Amino acid sequence: MIYVFDSGPWIVLLEHFYPKRFPTLWERVAQLIHDKRIISVREVYHEVEERGDLLSEWAKKNQ
Prior knowledge:
- This protein is mainly α.
- The chain has one domain.
- It is 60% helix and 6% strand.
- The protein is built from four helices and two strands, in the order βααβαα.
- The protein has helices spanning 7-16, 23-34, 42-49, 54-61; strands spanning 3-4, 38-39.
- Strands 1-2 form a two-stranded parallel sheet.
- The radius of gyration is 11 Å and the shape is globular.
- The two termini are 19 Å apart.
- The mean pLDDT is 92.
């Protein structure tokens, strides 16, 4: 199954599940992205990138 994420789930995920507190969750998400099981559109990346926060840093590493 492939999941298509909008920016909202990424923002909520980061606000409630901090990478330092939930490293396994974020490692699994990164693996799902790598495996192309979580995808998104370019506009979502640009929206997240503009935030200039931890989420934008994470997105740059995991695009």
